[in-house]
Amino acid sequence: MSSASPVRESQRACIVGIGETRYTKRGEQADRGEWALACEAALNATRDAGLDPRNIEGLASYSGDTSLPWLMQHALGIQHLRFASMVWGGGGSGACGSLAHAVAAVESGQAANVLVFRSIVQRPGSRYGEAGGFSEVPQIDLLAPFGMLMPASMMAPSFMRYMHEYGIRTEHLAEVALAFRDNAQRNPRAVMHGLPLSINQYMAARMIAEPLRLYDCCQENDGACALLVTTAERARDLPGKPVRVLSAQQGGNPGWGSATMGSHTMPAAEYGWGNGEQLSNDLYAAAGVSPSEVDFAQIYDHFTPAVLMSLENFGLCGRGEGGDFVAAGKIRRGGSMPLNTAGGLLSEAYIHGLNLVAEAVRQLRGESTSQVPGARVGLVTAGIGSTPISAALLAA
Amino acid sequence: MTMTSYLPDLGPITAPQLPDHFAFWDYCAKRELRFQCCSACGQWRHPPAPVCPHCGSAAVEWKLAPSRAELFSYTVVHHASTPALRGHVPYNIAIVAFPDLVDIRIVSNVLDVPPQELRIGMPLQLVWQEQAPGRVLPLFVRAKATA
C-alpha cells in the first residue's frame, strides 16, 4: 500500500482516541441535553487518547450540531483554540467530512489536536417521521405540497428505481437489516442489544414509504460520539495504538441536489445509484489503496437500500450486484466483507454516522465485539443521495 | 368543476422561499407548467436557478413543458408525517420525467392509479388541482392509451 499524499509521514493524520456516551432510545437523555453529551464524549475521547482536554486545539462537527465551538471551548477548558469548522449537509452526510476537516487541520499544521464530535438529542418536532424539520431546505416548496416531507419519502423513489433497474428484492433489504441486528447482539452498547430480529418480524412490520418497511429505516436516538485526531509524530508520544487516516473526502456527482432535490436533476442513468461514484474514485486514489484491499466496511445505513447502493458505489461489488452480494452472506460476520460490525445506525444507534467511524477504529485496534480477524484497512461511508456526502479509508 | 385536492393544504412549509421559484408558481397559478430555458444556449433547467449550469448565462425564458410525460419513479407513503395527512395515507409521490427533455423531472402525485398499478415508465398526462387558495399544483393522471 503506497501513500498518494504529499504530506510527510510524520505529519499524517491519525485517530488516537474515540469516546462515546451511552446510546439510548430517543428522549431518554433529553434532560441532559446535547452539550452535556458532547462534553462527555469529548472527555471519553481525550481519556482514551491519553491527552489533556485543555490541549485540544481544534473542533469539527457537522449537520447543525448545537454544541457550538465557544460552548465546547468553555466547558473543556481549551487553552489554545486554533480551528473550528462545521460541515454542510443534512443527516450524517458530513460524518467523514468533519473528519476530513480535522485531517486537513492537523496535516497543515493549523491545529495539533482536533476533536471531531456529533451530539444528538432527538427533540419532539424534529423526529425523522415528522414533517416540519425541513425549513432549512430552500427548495422544499417543490416537494412538500406533494407530501414529500420526511427522509423516508425523500429517499424512497431513488431506492424504488434502483430496485427496479437491478432486480433488488425485499429479501435483500431484509438481509441487511438482519445482519446488522445480529451484530448488535454481540455489542452491549447497541440500543438493539438483546432484541434479535427475525425475517418474520421484518416482513410483518408496517410499511413506511414503499419499498421501505419499518426495519429498513434507522433508529432515533440520543447520544454523542467523538474522535481525537492528531499527527503520527504526536501519536508516538501517546499510549494508544493510532489508526491512520489514509484519506477522508467529501464529494458528490454532478446534478445531485440535496437529498431528493436530486430527483429533479441528476443524470437519469445514475438515479438508482446514489451519488458516491466520483467520491469513491477520489477516496481510493488519495489513499493509494484499491477496493480489493478493504477488509471490512462501516456503511452509512440510514436505510437498507443505501447499503446496497454504497457497496456498488465504493467498488466492493459490481454495479447491480449488491443484492446477490448480501444474499450470499458476504456482509455477515465471517463473510468476505463484514459490514457495520457494531450494528450500524439501524441497530447500534443513529449518531449521524460518527459511531461508524468509532467502530472502524475499534476494528483496526482489534477491539470490536464482532472482530474481523487481521483487519488492516477499513472503509467508512457517510450519507448517500444528498450532496456532498463523505467517506474515509482508515488503516491499522 | 370543483375537485377535492389529492392532498390537503399542508400550510406554511409548502411556501416558496427562493425568489427564483416565484415565477414557477405564478405560472402554475395560471395552469401553465413552464420551465426555465437558457436564452443564450437553449438548455432547459429545473428547479429554477439564477444562472444556466451549462453556460453561466443569466438570460432566461420560461417555456411550456412538453406534454409527453412518464412515471420515472415513485413511492407509496403509508406513514402520515403530519396530522393533516392522517386521513390520506396511503398516497403516492411520483417522480415525473419528460422524455423530450434531458434530466428534468418534477415531484408530483398520480391521481387515478391504485398503488399496485403504478409502473415505472407508464405514460402520464398533466392535470391541475388547487390545493389551497392560490396554490395550484401540477398533478398527473394515466395517459390515454392512444394519445
Structure explained in plain terms:
The complex is a heterodimer of chains A (396) and B (147). By secondary structure, chain A is α+β, with helices and mostly antiparallel strands. Chain A has helices spanning 34-49, 69-76, 95-107, 151-166, 170-184, 199-204, 232-235, 262-265, 277-287, 304-313, 322-327, 344-347, 354-365, and strands at 13-20, 24-25, 58-62, 83-87, 114-120, 207-209, 212-213, 221-231, 243-251, 296-298, 377-382, 389-395. In chain A, the strands form two sheets. In chain A, strands 1, 2, 3, 4, 5, 8, 9, 10, 11 and 12 form a ten-stranded mixed sheet that branches. A two-stranded antiparallel sheet of chain A has the order 6-7. Chain A starts with 12 loop residues before the first strand and ends with a strand. The longest helix of chain A has 16 residues, at 34-49. Chain B has 147 residues and is mainly beta. In chain B, strand 5 (91-97) and strand 6 (105-108) form a beta hairpin. The mean pLDDT of chain B is 94. Chains A and B meet through helix 4, strand 6 and helix 8 of A and strand 4, strand 5 and strand 6 of B.
Find the count of extended strands of chain A (DSSP E, 2+ residues).
12
Question: What multimeric state do the chains show?
Answer: heterodimer
Largest sheet of chain B: 5 strands, antiparallel
Which blocks of ≥5 consecutive residues of chain B have pLDDT under 50? none
Helix content of chain A: 25-40%
- State the helical fraction of chain B: under 10%
Please give the count of helices of chain B. Answer: 1
H-E string of chain B? HEEEEEEEE
Shape of chain A: globular
Distance between the termini of chain A: 12 Å
Structural class of chain A: alpha+beta
SSE class of chain B: mainly beta
Low-confidence stretches of chain A: none
Gyration radius of chain A (Cα, Å) is 19 Å
